[in-house]
């Protein structure tokens, strides 16, 4: 006769989805909850906190900025500790002369917090054609500017110790193409519309790779191309980038509107950023709907073009909180 006389658990806390990798226990929070330290003593941890990304703007608009990114060591008190995972900003319908013109800050994401550390929400993209204002909102990373009224300025990013970057500026060409700037990413700034030439919307800034502690191959996303916004994928943790897997917090691409016949740019940044929409009256084969940032990457959504069926701006991706300790 055999019977179990006892078990030993390496788990020192509850909360989130729990996995084990490289002698670490990892708690992954894709929604808000409690990290409950059950040891009865302070617990040394390593964390990553990513806020919700900003939505793209409306009407040849800027891309949304990525949520702020923070990582570091910390000490967590015994008992329940609140974890808040920020939501992405909501993409709005795009058109001329709406009844009301919500500010770009209304399209921003939400902060993520853990253990008295806050990552700032991603800035919403600026909007054009009286959907205003044309400036991108500030945030963890800033939103991109729209094309009108006056070429929209970029939102700044990286405040309060967040890893983040500004968005790009919009560009207005009377009688020609109008396009939005890219939202900033945690790894690089969004590009300005019209760079390097007219007819080019701004690309979203690149994301940032998670620390090696959290790069469990079992949690990797399926392979795809990058900058990746045109190949949205689901599942896994982050997206591929220039140094392999596990990138988060990419900026959303700006929108392109009208002639010339060959519009380009507006790609989302690697790390989950959504592409901006394209509306090309000269070449409808180029038309593209705005894409949302990938869930649980804190990435920005793509900006929207006016006069285009299904012209909803891309929503920002929700954030994520990761907590690890020695197994």
Structure described in brief:
With 327 residues, the chain is mostly beta strands.
**Tally of alpha and pi helices:** 0
What do the pLDDT scores average to?
85
SSE sequence, one letter per element: EEEEEEEEEEEEEEEEEEE
What's the β-strand tally? Answer: 19
Termini separation comes to: 32 Å
- Class by SSE composition: mainly beta
Q: Let me know the largest β-sheet.
A: 5 strands, antiparallel
Radius of gyration: 20 Å
Count of spatially separate domains = 1
Strand content: 15-25%
Which sequence of strands runs across the widest sheet?
A: 1-4-7-8-9
Low-confidence stretches: 225-233
Indicate the percent of residues in helices: under 10%
3D architecture notes:
This protein has one domain. It has a 5-stranded antiparallel beta sheet with strand order 1-4-7-8-9, with no helix packed on it. The protein is elongated. The model is unreliable at 225-233 (pLDDT under 50). It has no helices and 19 strands. It has strands at 13-14, 17-21, 24-29, 33-37, 43-50, 69-76, 79-84, 112-114, 117-119, 171-172, 178-179, 200-201, 208-209, 239-241, 244-248, 256-257, 264-265, 278-279, 320-326. The two termini are 32 Å apart. It is mainly β.
List strands and helices in order, with pairings.
Elements: E1 13-14, E2 17-21, E3 24-29, E4 33-37, E5 43-50, E6 69-76, E7 79-84, E8 112-114, E9 117-119, E10 171-172, E11 178-179, E12 200-201, E13 208-209, E14 239-241, E15 244-248, E16 256-257, E17 264-265, E18 278-279, E19 320-326
Parallel strand pairs: 12-17, 16-18
Antiparallel strand pairs: 1-4, 2-3, 3-19, 4-7, 5-6, 5-19, 7-8, 8-9, 10-11, 11-16, 13-15, 14-15
